[in-house]
Design brief:
The chain is mainly beta and 468 residues long. Strand 7 and strand 8 form a beta hairpin. The protein starts with 10 loop residues before the first strand and ends in a 14-residue tail after the last helix. It has a 5-stranded mixed beta sheet with strand order 1-30-29-28-27, with no helix packed on it. Strands 2-33-32-31 form a 4-stranded antiparallel beta sheet. Strands 3-4-5-6 form a 4-stranded antiparallel beta sheet, with no helix packed on it. The chain has one domain: Methylamine Dehydrogenase, Chain H (7 Propeller), CATH 2.130.10.10. It has 3 helices and 33 strands. The protein is 4% helix and 41% strand.
């Protein structure tokens, strides 16, 4: 898809570099803890590591081993973790590109992943979430299944977003190795229209958050970790008391599925397939700001230096002044949907369905003064969201961290998106490939209306899952 972004209100961003090393769409990316390396995951079944502190971006290594597209990536210390549609996660050594361990146990594609000091958490289309040991060096050969320490089972459809809330309490377990605090909580969101909180210690369900009428595609908590925000296919955002599962507020304003949710101390922002990004204040149920100009679904949001950054299916990344809503900069150059983005070292990195990683000058965006009298361009009145979403059959929908990610999704029983920001595929058996090797091909963007209706379909038989 060519660049079809808004005109006026926002300068064109300066493109610094274009890397076309990946053979297919880039679905997800993450920055290392020290900010020195970027990792990208692709539909070509590989992940690549890139330098970010060198004058020119260099590919530091290629991680090969997965047999299908990569949905999520994470880093910790000197390791990279990848999650794939081949139902496995893999742990890699950054320095040697060697695959150190394959986490096997899920029975369908991996959707989302979280990495902590001691554990890896994953969600899957198989209706479960799992917790795995990060350090697997002490596992003896033949006991690899012991890497899975918990299976969280109870959702009726595929599980997508995931949040881990560690307890502030000190654990009394003084033994060597990772410990699980009794008060540690995991939260998962599902296409069954519910979110659930789980005891990490027992893997038992603590609370169910019920009220949505469509798949939950993205979640976040406030900075205190006491309030949960959920959003999804029913176009609403809901806030909940995490301890009691009491509904606090229902935020309405979007007209179509919400793909990503970004939280700040006082506000939160949502990106949707209705071509808009909206800003909300915790205390009010009406949105206080609309960020206009997008001409396709918004797959991922990032908040950095009072600037809201958006990745959009119209092939353009944008930077807005978060306070005024003014469009500050458009990054035009990709030839297909922008699925993911990262801002670091004064640079913006964008990954696209066109298979390229592009690097843009972001330093001046954060430093420039904003003329609040300049209004962002309006959404075209004749824009047809349905037509736009069906326009490109090779554009991958995205959910992350965090998410849209990206959030990125197929209708029930169909292949879902290959990225984190738009996980809306519904429960059901994985479709049989149409031809040899088709199982590795990336899923296409599906009609959002089908996804919204699919949550009402009856559940199919639950696939077997490993006991925790």
């Amino acid at each position: 898809m060519g660049a079809g972004g808004s005109t006026g209100g926002g300068k064109k961003g300066e493109l610094l570099e274009t890397m076309a090393d990946h053979e297919e769409s880039i679905n997800c990316m993450v920055i290392s803890e020290d900010g020195s390396m970027l990792v990208t995951g692709s539909e070509d079944s590989t992940a690549r590591m890139w330098s970010t502190k060198t004058e020119e971006t260099e590919c530091l290594g290629v991680l090969r081993g997965h047999s299908s597209y990569i949905n999520c990536v994470g880093t910790h210390d000197t390791f990279v973790i990848t999650g794939s549609a081949d139902s496995t996660l893999r742990k890699w050594d950054m320095t040697t590109c060697e695959c150190l361990f394959v986490y096997e146990g899920h029975t369908s594609r991996i959707q989302k992943m979280l990495v902590t000091d001691d554990f890896i958490f994953s969600t899957s289309f198989d209706k479960t979430a799992k917790a795995w040991l990060f350090n697997t060096e002490e596992l003896e050969e033949g006991n690899e299944e012991e890497a899975c320490v918990r299976t969280f089972k109870g959702h009726g459809k595929g599980v997508y977003p995931i949040i881990f809330i560690p307890s502030d309490e000190e654990s009394e377990d003084l033994s060597d190795g990772p410990t699980i605090n009794p008060a540690d909580v995991l939260i998962t969101g599902s296409a069954d229209m519910t979110a659930r909180s789980w005891s990490f210690e027992s893997a038992g369900c603590l609370k169910q958050f019920r009220g949505h009428s469509g798949a939950i595609t993205t979640m976040a908590t406030d900075v205190s970790g006491r309030v949960l925000f959920t959003a999804g296919a029913d176009a609403t955002i809901r806030s909940w008391n995490i301890l009691t599962a009491q509904l606090l507020k229902n935020f309405e304003g979007h007209s179509r599925m919400i793909l990503d949710l970004c939280v700040t101390p006082k506000m939160f922002f949502t990106g949707s397939s209705d071509l808009s990004v909206r800003g909300w204040v915790y205390e009010f149920e009406e949105n206080v700001r609309v960020f206009k100009g997008h001409q396709h679904s918004i797959s991922q949001l990032k908040f950095f230096n009072d600037t809201l950054w958006t990745a959009c299916g119209d092939s353009i990344a944008r930077a807005y002044d978060a306070k005024s809503g003014s469009l500050k900069r458009q990054f035009v150059g990709h030839e297909a949907a922008v699925n993911c983005l990262v801002i670091t070292q004064g640079k913006l990195y964008t990954g696209s369905s066109d298979g390229t990683l592009r690097v843009w000058n972001a330093k001046d965006v954060c430093e420039e003064l904003i003329d609040n009298d300049v209004q962002p361009p309006p959404i075209p009145v004749d824009a047809d969201a349905d037509a736009l979403e069906g326009e490109e059959t090779d554009v991958v929908a995205v959910e992350g961290e965090e998410e849209g990610e990206g959030g990125e999704e197929g209708a029930e029983g169909e292949e879902g998106p290959a990225d984190e920001s738009e996980p809306v595929q519904e429960d059901g058996e994985e479709p049989a490939p149409e031809g040899e090797g088709d199982e590795e091909e990336a899923p296409v963007v599906e009609d959002v209306e089908e996804i919204e209706e699919s949550a009402d379909k009856p559940d199919e038989e639950e696939p077997d899952a490993e006991a925790g």
